[in-house]
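FORM 7B - TANDEM STRUCTURE REPORT

SECTION 1: FIRST PROTEIN
SEQUENCE AND TOKENS:
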Amino acid sequence: MSLSVAGSLKNNISKAKTALMIGTVSVFLAACGGGDKPKADVVETRITQIGVNGFLWRASLDTVSFAPLVTADSAGGVIVTDWYATPDNPNERVKITVSILDQDLRADALRVAASRQIAQGGGWVDAPVKAATVQKLEQIILTRARDLRRTAIVN
């Protein structure tokens, strides 16, 4: 066999291998896409893109939106507000910390802590927070999170 015929044959085999490889990859890629995905009847309560339950996260942000935020860490599930005083009572201020402890929408996946201070002698002095205040905030957040989930299921 001459050198030019052998070179031509080698070139044709190389092109055939390349075409076969491209065809094989195309078949695998075609199998990956397309087709309709089945829709879930129930909205998943786990939202992993942000690290915590998305409904609890959104409800917590909505509930404490009256106060300026210091920290909102969606990966760790912690929201901390700055001190907030109402215009009606500027001698009292509160600070709220919301912790989301799980990816599931459950009551024990939420923890709210509040600090309260009152103005006294030109400075701020710590004062007790009623337990009912923290419980009420938790209840408001959980109710809002459930409403958000119900809305997502309907839509």
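SECTION 2: SECOND PROTEIN
SEQUENCE AND TOKENS:
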Amino acid sequence: MKQNLTLLPTRRGVLGSSLAAGAVVTLAACGGGDKSASALPSGTGTAYDATTLSALPVSGTASVDINGHNYLLYRPDEGTVLAYTSVCTHQGCKVGTGDSKNFICPCHGSEYSKLDGSVTQGPAPKALTRYATSIEGDKVKIYL
């Protein structure tokens, strides 16, 4: 004699499944940002004087204001200056010049590589926006 056995979900099983599904949705919403660096931007747009080379030594960083917006500069070698927004991609705090390798956000500890703006430590979901620069004489120009 065959018996059909029907299992009904328990309250504990339904609650556990709901919590697991909610956790998956939450993690998917929090993650997924592009923490890697964006492509090197081209020098289009308007060039603004950001600083002088003499004020930005090799391996040095600077925070500069242009038209009411703040930008971070890093000079890895004699002929290169890199520029990024100083707005943290986590919650919009002002990112500081940081340590020898990273720009650091004082609000929640996000860190960004000075070499390409990529996230090296979260909670920031994506890299800092990068801007084209040029060196003209002793002037460092940023293209916005």
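SECTION 3: OBSERVATIONS ON SECOND PROTEIN
The first strand starts at residue 47 and ends at 52.
The helical segments are 11-30.

SECTION 4: SIGNATURE
Preparer initials: ____
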